[in-house]
Amino acid sequence: TKVVGLIKESGVTLIARIAGLLLAAISVEMIVQSIKGFFEL
Questions:
Q1: pLDDT tens for residues 14-27?
Q2: What is the pLDDT of residue 28?
Q3: 0.85 exceeded by the pTM?
Q4: pLDDT of amino acid 2
Q5: How many domains, the chain?
Q6: pLDDT score recorded for residue 41
Q7: What does the alpha-carbon distance between residue 6 and residue 29 come to, in Å, rounded to a whole number?
Q8: What residues contact 39, with CB distance under 8 A and at least 6 apart?
Q9: In this structure, what DSSP letter does residue 6 have?
Q10: Separation of alpha carbons 4 and 8, rounded Å
Q11: Which domain, by its residues, includes 1?
């Protein structure tokens, strides 16, 4: 049905956004750690 397709699509979008946010958070954490290591703070 159309409803099932819509839920699947929005679910995939939601998962993709969550994965993207998680990846961004990990990237920021790594950058912060690198800067701290570089300046030896």
A1: 999 999 999 999 99
A2: 97
A3: no
A4: 81
A5: 1
A6: 64
A7: 35
A8: none
A9: H
A10: 6
A11: 1-41
